[in-house]
Each structure stands twice: as structure tokens, then as C-alpha cells.
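WARN retry 2 of 3 for item q-0093 after timeout on previous attempt; input resubmitted unchanged.
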Amino acid sequence: MFIEIESRWHRRAGPEHEPWPAPEVPGAGHGSLATIVAMLWHKRRRALRFFYTPQTAGSGTSVMRGGQLSALVERSGLMDREITFQPLDLDARSSDLFLTKGAARSVSPDQISRWRRRGCRVLLDPVDEDVSDEVAAVADCVVAASISAEGAYRDRWPRARIVRIDHHVDPRVRDALATSDPASADTFVARYFGESVNTIITEQISSLVGFVQVDTSRQDDAWIREVPGANLHYAMRRHRALDRHKPFLKGFTAAAGGANILIGRDEAEAVNWLPDDYPYWVRNTEEKTIIEALEHARDTFMGDEWRRAQNAMQDIAARTTDERIIRQLVDAVA
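OK item q-0093 returned
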């Protein structure tokens, strides 16, 4: 499936359950017109609007957590409401607003308060970026895209509503996996999918791993055709100061294709998903250690350790189906 980055409007008919409280109406007494209006507001069908900024329209998070996620939930039929994927609308009213990373980064506490006064509920989805205490305090909900983010947010903002919506696998990857031959059971193929600045590459590591560049700042699907042929995903990360609560998307993608993953033991989110005895942890980021781990994966290919790793990855695949992630979103805005 190819997601074009442009405003996309989906309209459905029918009532929508609304358990969150209606906004307070100043001066409204029992039986007053204002109270009746508030009650009608409370029961009306609410739109769900995924916002992005024009500057980040082609970024990976806008595409995946905005365009793709909105399309998945709309196609599921689990919501009888209008669902849109559109540029940031500062004048939105009476809607649930899902702010993708770029949009969440750009709004002020005052703007969130204005939306709420107009009957909107605001969900922030910072993914792996920081959110200020002032912004989190006025939002209706902060979305965690990882288990580690969920725990950190609950510790930092104990009075805030925190919900977890795990990162889905790119639907274009699922389509490629469904329409391509599976990775060879006879040949060990290790590949890295991502931006080269984020990983550890040396000449010797490159002799064991194929590096496939992914530009997350724009739409780029050339790499997707390389995914079905890999049976080991290399996921060693070069840590940067700006990294916060990275979702385990590389693990989810590998699991969707029936592949194993080779990853650092210091990756906090991977630790939340893989067992302690997973065979292809890498204990540090030294070249010698990484090469030893790659050679171990190659030498145990299709053996008992390999199959034990596959069992762990199959469990991850079962926990990150599109259906489960759609249900997380539906529950978040119920």
C-alpha cells in the first residue's frame, strides 16, 4: 500500500460512544440551554483528526503515525466517525485531535487550551521526542509509542492520562512480504534497514551485512523490496543525545517477515520485548564483539539457537499485529 501525503477525508455515519466528560460551560445551570447544548455535544459523533505540519508532511512519523495509522483504523470499520489525515488546523472544533510528532512539537499550551475550550480532546504523540511539562499538563492524553516511554511518562506525569499505542509495521512492508518469496532457508542474509548515521558500520561489518539506506525525512519505498530477502536484521545503534524512547520498530519489522534480529543488549526497548536468553544479543558496541555476534548468527543459522530466536520473534509478531494496534487506538479515544 502506498500512502500519499495529502489531506485525506473519510466520512462515516452513526453515533460514537463518548465516555470522556463534556467541556464545562460557564454559567450553565441544571436545565439551562447551555447545559442542554453541552449534553448534545457530549453525545454527538466526534471526528478523529490526525494532524501533521506542512514542514513534516513527508517525514516517517507523519506518514506512519498519521497517514498509515488513520488509514488502518478507518479500514478496520471499528470506528463509526469521520477520520481525517490533514495539516494542523488551529480552528478545529468538537473533534479528537491526534497530533503526530511534528505537530506535537509545534503547538503551545495556549493553543491546546483553545482547542479544548472549543470541545476538542487533544492526544499528543511525540514518539521519540521530548514533551514539556507545560504541554503535557494541558493535553487530554499523552501517547506512548513504546513500553519504556509509557513507564517514563507515568513516572514524570503521574496525574496525566497516558496510553500506549505501539508502532505498527509499515503496510508497504507487509504487502511486500505477502507478495514476495520468503527469505532463503539455505542462505544466511543479514541486512540493515535505516539511516547510516544511526548504525555502526565498518569495512569488516559490511562484509557480513548488507546496508540498505532508508531516508526517514521523506517518502522512500525503494528499501522495502529488500526486506523479504533478509533472514537476520542488523540493528546495532549508534546512540545520539537526541534519542529518547525509540520504539522497537526494527524488531517488529523483522518479526513480521519471520526474521531474527541482532541487537545491542543496552537497547532499553528491545529488552522489554526479547527474553534474556535470546541468542543474538550483542553485549557491547565494539567492532570485534559485533563481528563475533554476526559470525555466531551465521554459524547457528537454522540450528536450535536460530529456531529458539525465531520463537521469540514469532511472539513479538503476534503482539504487534495491525489488529492489536488498531484496538489500542480505538480504546485510547473511546
